[in-house]
Write a structure and sequence with these properties.
Strands 1-2-3-4-5-7-6 form a seven-stranded mixed β-sheet, sandwiched between helices. It starts with a strand and ends in a 5-residue tail after the last helix. The longest helix has 13 residues. It is α+β, with helices and mostly antiparallel strands.
C-alpha cells in the first residue's frame, strides 16, 4: 500500500535520502538548491514534500504546491531500482483521487522517446496535455529556463484560464511575473 509521509522539519527522518534523490533525479536547471528546499519545507505552508513508501519500503518522493484553485506538482520521482512495478501509477492515482481540485504539472516537450513516454504515462492517468507556449523559469541565478508543456488532471483550467495558471505558478513557485 502506498503511503505519503509529509515533511515539515529539516530534521525529519529520511529527508536526507529524499533530498539526495531529488538532486540525482532532476537536472540542475529543473531544481532549486537544497538550502531553499529546506527553507520552503519549514516556512511555506503551501509547499508539501512527501517521502513515498510502499508499505514500509521507501520508494521515492513527491512535492507539490497548493495554489488555491489547483495543485501544482513540482517534482515526482520513483527510485530507479523500484521502477517497473506500477508504483508510480499507484502514487499518481492515489494523489489525484485525494486532490479534490485540478492537478497541474510541467513536462518536458516530447523531443525524445523518454520524454514522449513520460507524457504518455501522465495521459494514461487522465492528464491532458496543453501545447500552449510555456517556459519553466529558472529556480536560481545562473540556471537556464526550460521549454515545457503543462498537463492537467480533473479540470479545464488550462483550456479556459491558461494565463491565470501560468501566472500563479510563475509568481508563487518561481518568484517571477513573466518569463
Amino acid at each position: 500500500m502506498i503511503n505519503f509521509h509529509l515533511y515539515r522539519s529539516a530534521n525529519d527522518k529520511y529527508l536526507t535520502y529524499v533530498l539526495a534523490f531529488y538532486e540525482q533525479s532532476f537536472p540542475v536547471d529543473e531544481r532549486r538548491k537544497i538550502s531553499k528546499m529546506l527553507e520552503l519545507i519549514e516556512n511555506e505552508p503551501r509547499f508539501h514534500v512527501h517521502a513515498l513508501f510502499n508499505d514500509e519500503e521507501l520508494i521515492g518522493f513527491f512535492n507539490y504546491w497548493d495554489l488555491g484553485e489547483f495543485l501544482y506538482v513540482e517534482h515526482f520521482a520513483i527510485d530507479p531500482m523500484k521502477r517497473g512495478k506500477n508504483l508510480g501509477s499507484e502514487v499518481l492515482q492515489s494523489f489525484v483521487e485525494k486532490a479534490g481540485k485540478p492537478v497541474i504539472l510541467e513536462v518536458e516537450r516530447p523531443e525524445d522517446p523518454i520524454k514522449e513516454r513520460r507524457i504518455s504515462f501522465y495521459q494514461r492517468h487522465g492528464f491532458h496535455l496543453s501545447q500552449k507556449p510555456y517556459i519553466q523559469p529558472t529556480y536560481e541565478e545562473g540556471q537556464k529556463s526550460v521549454p515545457m508543456y503543462l498537463m492537467e488532471y480533473g479540470g479545464n483550467l488550462l483550456e479556459n484560464n491558461f494565463g491565470m495558471v501560468k501566472q500563479k505558478i510563475y509568481s508563487t513557485v518561481y518568484g517571477v511575473t513573466e518569463e
